[in-house]
Amino acid sequence: MNTSISASGDLPLDPAAAFGVAGSSSRAMAPRTTLAPGEKLAVHDLTMRYANGHTALRDFNVSVSGGEMVVVLGSNGSGKSTFMKCVVGLNRPTSGSVEVAGRDLAALSGKALRRARLPLALISQNANLVKRRSVLANVCCGTLGRHRTLGTALGRVPREEIEPARAYLDEVGLLHLAGQRAGTLSGGQAQRVAVARALAQRPHVLLADEPVASLDPEAADEVMRLLRRLATEDGLAVVCVLHQPELAARYADRLVGLRRGRMEFDRPASQVSSQQIAQLYVDEAS
Ligand SMILES: Nc1ncnc2c1ncn2[C@@H]1O[C@H](COP(=O)(O)OP(=O)(O)OP(=O)(O)O)[C@@H](O)[C@H]1O
Ligand SMILES: [Mg+2]
């Protein structure tokens, strides 16, 4: 493997071989940025009508502060992913606003918008790792949004990002797998690596769209515990879409119910009845 250091001081994107994975825990070094007290993700009157005329989200409002974990529930097609994509900028909402720490993303464009979106990280159902790359290289990919140089465009990682990437891997309990090819991981391990990659982006807001959909109960529990800890201990604002109401009730501070693109409820998890949840999945036509 080529482990040479480029002229720019960056490292090749598959650096695991150059940096041994043995050694003591580096968890304390994991750099973290968080929302300041009082700052939050705030979504106002969000409406998304797709080009085919279908309105997937209507006048949706929600806010999530640092340290909070909110779970969004709703049946297939109710608009959950549409909401998440609007927040991270993969969808351009028809109307409404997405504010992070008081900054309205819709009012920004170009470089300013790209920067403003950096504190938002999205994890999806499939970990979407680069299978032939090492676990560590995949985590390093999370840093690339912060570095826009010729070197990173060529797939190189700034050398100062290697140790933090190892620390994020340690944080999800997988530092021992840093040098392993991502394609060899179990589903649960891959999803935890996806969380580490998201952390490498140094987000204030972590969005997870069905992060445990393909995991067995134990692995699902592990990923949910991890997300919960990132909210409680590290102060991230966590928004998670789930199809498992029981997991939602166990881990969330608040539950948001979506039905046909409209909010049905946004309440503390302890105040949502199983009847209210069941109602989200009832087909009105039946
Ligand atoms: N690009 C698109 N163009 C047109 N319609 C779309 C588009 N993306 C999603 N939709 C529609 O918007 C609605 C909401 O889709 P969305 O993916 O947000 O649902 P979801 O709640 O995430 O469902 P699931 O639980 O199955 O993931 C669906 O009816 C879907 O068909
Ligand atoms: Mg979805």
From TrEMBL:
GO terms for molecular function: ABC-type phosphonate transporter activity; ATP binding; ATP hydrolysis activity. Pfam families: ABC_tran. GO terms for cellular component: plasma membrane. InterPro entries: AAA+_ATPase, ABC_transporter-like_ATP-bd, ABC_transporter-like_CS, ABC_transpr_LolD-like, ABC_transpr_PhnC, P-loop_NTPase. Keywords: ATP-binding, Cell inner membrane, Cell membrane, Membrane, Nucleotide-binding, Translocase, Transport. PROSITE patterns: ABC_TRANSPORTER_1 (PS00211), ABC_TRANSPORTER_2 (PS50893). The keyword Isomerase does not apply. Residues 41-285 form the ABC transporter domain. PANTHER family: IMPORT ATP-BINDING PROTEIN (PTHR24220), TRANSPORTER, PUTATIVE-RELATED (PTHR24220:SF659). This is Phosphonate transport system ATP-binding protein. It comes from Paraburkholderia phenazinium.
